[in-house]
Structures are given as C-alpha cells and as structure tokens.
Amino acid sequence: MSSDDNGLGWPFDKEEEEAPARPNVVEYSVSEISFALKRIVEDTFGYVRIRGELGRVSRPASGHVYLDLKDEKSVLSGVCWKGVAQRLKVQPEQGLEVIITGKITT
Q: Residue 7 to residues 1, 2, 12, 15, 73: CA-CA distances in angstroms?
C-alpha cells in the first residue's frame, strides 16, 4: 500500500520496511517489560501534583472515586480511595478544573 492510499497520516504514511534481524537484541517477556516500566515510572515520579480537568467520574458502592484527569492532549485514569474520598472538601465532578496530589502507579 502506498502512503497515498492509507489515509492514516504519520507514522503510518510511509511504506513498511521489514525490520532487519538483530540476534544481539535482548528479548524480554511481557512480564519483564511490564515490571521494568512499573519500576521506572513509580521510582521516577513518586508523589506528584497534576493539573487538569476532570472527565469521567464514577462512585461505585465501594466508596472509591474513579476518575479521568485530562488536558487537551492526554488523559490519565485515577482512583481516590474511600478513606480519602470521604475527607475531600470538594466533591469531584466532570468538568471541574483541579490540581490533584498523589502517587503514580501502573
């Protein structure tokens, strides 16, 4: 398929070339990569303050609050545990601009 035919745009607009075999490239399992990414993200960021707009907000019977924090380019999903949610001075609702403090996990 040529780049004119697919209509997807970059990075899909270039014809695929088969990747050369690289016998010296280390092979990882899904679990190994997942654990490594978790360790890197959680060790690098620790506690953070993130500014954004609340998207989806749900409050299941468990008492936890599940929410999406978004800006014009990205969305992060998060949870506010029941004990913390009960002490919030402002109840989360869709469209609210917030600064959230918490720990990033994967």
A: 11, 10, 8, 12, 22
Number of domains forming the structure of the chain:
1
**What is the CATH number for 98?**
2.40.50.140
DSSP state of 10: T
**How buried is 69 (Cβ within 10 angstroms: 0-12 exposed, 13-18 middle, 19+ buried)?**
buried
User: Which residue did the predictor score with more confidence, 18 or 71?
Assistant: 71
Query: Six-digit token pair at 36?
Result: 């490594």
pTM: 0.69
The residue ranking higher by pLDDT, 29 or 21, is: 29
In a domain, 10, yes or no: no
Confidence of residue 3 (pLDDT cuts 50, 70, 90): very low
